[in-house]
Amino acid sequence: MAFLIQPLAIQHEGRLNVTVDPRQHRAVFPFLKMHGLFNCFVILDLRGSPQRVPAEDVQRICDVRSGVGAEQLLAIEPPTDAGRSSGADVFMRIYNIDGAEVSACGNATRCVAYHLMRESGHETVTIETAAGLLRCSASGDQAVSVQFGPIGTAWNEVPLTGPADTSCLPIESGPLKGGFAVSVGNPHTVFFVDKLADVDIPRFAPPIQNHPIFESGTNVGVGEIVDACTIKLAVWERPGMLTQACGTGACAAAFVARQRRFISTDSVMVHLPGGTLRIDLREHGVTMTGPVATCCSGYLPLQLS
Ligand SMILES: N[C@@H](CCC[C@H](N)C(=O)O)C(=O)O
Q1: Domain residue spans in the chain?
Q2: How does pLDDT run across 151-208, given as a tens digit for each residue?
Q3: Best CA proximity match to 251, nearest among 182, 196, 204, 298
Q4: Which fold has domain 172-283?
Q5: Is 51 among the annotated ligand-binding positions?
Q6: Is 168 noted as a catalytic residue in this protein?
Q7: C or N: which end of the chain has fewer Cβ atoms within 10 Å?
Q8: CATH 3.10.310.10 assigned to 4-148+291-302
Q9: pLDDT of residue 246
Q10: Are 202 and 242 in contact, with CB atoms under 8 Å apart?
Q11: 229 carries an active-site annotation
């Protein structure tokens, strides 16, 4: 697969349109690469030709050696009929680097929302995902807020494979004990430790991520309380990588810290290796606010089925 990459030559007016490469007789899909706190994404606009991206293509595109390099691939598609009648502007399909579809990604939602708001000239956009509708709004020049619904805490919402106390799971790995499992549209298990820097996350997180108590694995958050309104957080994400930032992980950690009364405010600053997110905890749900950035755009010749 060959790529034509145009660093920083970003066209924000109009859609990313599909054209045909006359030499290769293959559809050429424009892509945009963006990041939210260095959690980076390739975005494809498939509104004109909604189809699934095969797992091998996702893997190749996301691999920094063979492709563009990204931690998730996002396909913008038309909303479903149900989504459209509830006000959704688009459907966002989320692929992890192994090609598996997942139902939520906080940083990606901010990036796609920013791109769509630039395209429409509006200050708000509603994105449908497999986990439901996400209402997004501009928050200054280069930042976006996303409203998630209420955090799920029931065992079958996470989902676990059977009934268990999600607020104190009976599993452990080294210093990771007493995890609190929640759903932010995707599964997260949050542990708090005294000193985050002392935890060897690549060693201790995988046994939690892949524990049979989870129906489809879990993302693993390891947090340290800095003060009554601030958390330091690292997230080990499915399918097995330490990220610079995780938006849904930040929502999960702020929610769990509040439940455990480790923090006393409804507005929590979550410091991740890639930067800081503000998480507002409200009765009707959680709102995440943070920056986005555009890396480059280009063209991907793909044979989608
Ligand atoms: N980085 C994302 C989460 C992406 C999905 C995750 N890897 C999963 O498997 O659920 C975020 O910002 O939320």
Answers
A1: 4-148+291-302, 172-283
A2: 999 999 999 999 999 999 999 999 999 999 999 999 999 999 999 999 999 999 999 9
A3: 182
A4: Diaminopimelate Epimerase; Chain A, domain 1 (3.10.310)
A5: no
A6: no
A7: C
A8: yes
A9: 98
A10: yes
A11: no
